[in-house]
């Protein structure tokens, strides 16, 4: 996860267990715990002290290699209890917001914690993410998710309705992934620094419409509404073609700036 | 640029000069320099000491407001002498590589410096980007670009053909934006840490084909070939529709992992 | 235009004048008329009696070949005074309506006459298109367009608001290309045979929304809303890729059946 | 199927049996035959003499309505033994070819007979489709398919390899839906009238590449390579959005003209 050191694997590290192109697993090393896969069981204690790139076998003799997961692999380990945001959207949300290391940002609702995690990963170590969630159960599970991948130190999770107010001032960006983002537009404006961005992710055109109306009314500038589509190629030599079936829609990204 | 401080504008700072939705400019504050716009001239010295959000007027009385540019706004100021990579692609390239703060990455060719800048922005302050460029003129201009937006401290630019060898070892990711990425696949493999990603950006299907063949041959795993499309909405209340004309193609992103 | 005879060109025939890949013209042969191109003038009388495939020269010696235009080439000759419908949409509109030779169909508004012409072309010789247009000037120009390409015998053009009633009964399909198709849904239902299709073409999502609501309310079944996108390839050997810029949006097609 | 008469249903007619939005069936009325559905059985003899729009019940009392199927509904009844072409592609193939009533066209390979059927439907009654298929079993099944929907009178099916020669001369268009269309390009050129179109449908970019090279070499003009994408909308009032998952790729359409 961004570290180029080649030290030994220790308890609490996340590892990528790779068998083959169809079977790979991301798991956290915990002493005394057994990890079950379709290729057999792995005694996680036995991974401690090994190096990334080392190989091993399951208890039924299936060989695997131990490697490093990426951030997006770690997100896949989250217990998903709400709709998640895809990497194609997360990447554009991040870049269009202008947010980077050191930034202070607000996000709502927390949900599974995908977006907050990506933001925390890219604002750390000196930046901070403040994330709001009304549902207590979601809030508690999200905290577990953040903790599990080591990003909790950079996130302040709040079990609070963002509509009741944004506690933070002079934030670099506000990210909204909730059903009625238009109702937060005024609060977001007040919380943002001059030049800061509001970024909204919504699945329907009607939500884009209401959001853009609210943004204009509040005086936000440089409003942009886009959708990001990812098309996979079936890259076989001599038979190059896009995949037949795929995801055509996840949501729209609306971005605007306080200017 | 990721800073939430509200201190005064000083020489060397980048500012966003906003007149209206069609007229905005990104410029670096230099004492004694005049900046010319279609709305009149601005004496840049006069901006020093102002705060972000303050307003002012051009020498012909046109009002503007001074604000903070985002990373992608700064990239727009680069003198472009090669094809650049768009934010929609940069965001996915970044996320799919797994690279974040602290990472050590290699990139070639430098070109205008778009990709190296984005990488530097997201690996700083503790990470580093090593970027290779064969053409001396491009190399020199890219260094100027990096310097201008303050990212040079995190970038090692080399006027060297990456085919002659990658000097770095145990890098977290290798990014290739050049015409024949397949010829670098073996070198990239050797330079990567276990679990590290190679990410290739190419405009044609034939290049994807040759790259994927080379990646498979070398033993790279989890090879994925995608294209990212961005479609803009014309968001007018009661008349919501996608824009009529837009960009349909920039390039394909091929990603694989050393496993 | 669908005729495989190889008889001689005669007055009133449409011909395709082909110079090269960038310069081609579609013109109707009229005795005594001069046709001006960027490659020089052509005395149209001189084409009479020639055969398709014959070559000739302009008055400045530029060689061209005389050939047959397709229906879509003929449509390009229409004086365009309203937004036209593209072949990608026309083809799907036709097929999804189920309309073929012998069908009796209603269309509104006539506009430039693109859709009525395509329908007439595919229902002829025994079928018929009834097309409604409120604006007298459009109606008169459309008749000229129909006449010019020989489709007027299969079209009944009416200078009448379709909202005031559809005169025809038991029609196979109703096609609506006007701003408020929802207001015609009830009339269309009454005019259709059982099993007949209504096909609506509209540019905005809001129009799709209102149309679908009206269709459901009236009891139409098998309602389907789609958009057809055409992406061009830049097919150069060894450099296969989609075109960089293209048309991303024309309109949505809503289809339903009276069942 | 394009007929606006309201006469009674008779043996041999195709009917659309509509229960609800999820359950509809297309079946040919045959006396003495029982048709089984998930909603119960229907004695097809009982439909004879009824009118389109009449209702009836299955043997377990489930109500249905009898209506007219469209051409594309009839194609769905074909026993599919090869990859079929979708309406979105069929519509553009038809329009870009310029083929209409009265045209004489050649097609290969016949396959399931989708494309030949669409062509026959739109060139009838005076036009004709000549379709080539090397596999005897496909050829025999396709004839059954053509016969079943009443289009056999307009189609000459041949159990012959089109590579061994095109028997027809002066045809308006040649349609190729086979793995190596480039090998038929010369034969197609010779068979076409001047101005006639060749239209090729292939799934991979490599096939487009080889086809375009062959077309250029033979002297075909106005070569165009496109793909047609259809995106479905989930049209729910207040929640308008594209469908999440859908078909992203079927094939590419290459068209060129003999000029």
Arrangement of strands in the largest sheet of chain A: 9-8-7-10-11-15-12-13
CATH superfamily of the largest domain in chain A, by name, is Vaccinia Virus protein VP39
For the report, how would you describe the main beta sheet of chain A? 8 strands, mixed
Order of helices and strands of chain A: EEEEEEHHEHEHEEHEHEEEE
Distance between the termini of chain A: 36 Å
Give the largest interface. Answer: A-B, 77 and 77 residues
User: Strand pairing plus helix content of chain A: what structural class?
Assistant: alpha/beta
Low-confidence parts of chain A: none
- Looking at how many chains there are and whether they match, the oligomeric state comes to homotetramer
Rg of chain A, nearest Å:
21 Å
- Give the overall shape of chain A: globular
Q: Work out the number of β strands of chain A.
A: 15
Strand content of chain A: 25-35%
- The number of helices of chain A is 6
Key attributes of the depicted protein:
homotetramer, 259 residues, Vcp-like ATPase, Chain A, domain 2, 2 domains, eight-stranded mixed beta sheet, four-stranded antiparallel beta sheet, 23% helix
Describe what you observe in this structure:
Four copies of one chain form a homotetramer. Chain A has 259 residues and is an alpha/beta fold. Chain A has two domains: 14-69, Roll (Vcp-like ATPase, Chain A, domain 2); 74-257, 3-Layer(aba) Sandwich (Rossmann fold), CATH 3.40.50. In chain A, 23% of the residues lie in helices and 32% in strands. Chain A is built from six helices and 15 strands. Chain A has helices at residues 71-75, 87-97, 114-123, 136-148, 185-191, 205-218, and strands spanning 14-18, 24-28, 34-37, 40-43, 55-57, 63-67, 104-108, 128-132, 155-158, 171-176, 192-202, 221-234, 241-242, 245-247, 252-257. In chain A, the strands form three sheets. Chain A has an eight-stranded mixed sheet, sandwiched between helices. A four-stranded antiparallel sheet of chain A has the order 2-1-6-5, with no helix packed on it. A two-stranded antiparallel sheet of chain A has the order 3-4. In chain A, helix 3 links the parallel strand 7 (104-108) and strand 8 (128-132). Chain A starts with 13 loop residues before the first strand and ends with a strand. At the A-B interface, helix 1, helix 2, helix 3, strand 11 and helix 6 of A face helix 1, helix 2, helix 3, strand 11 and helix 6 of B. Strand 14 (245-247) of chain B pairs antiparallel with strand 14 of chain C, so a sheet runs across the interface.
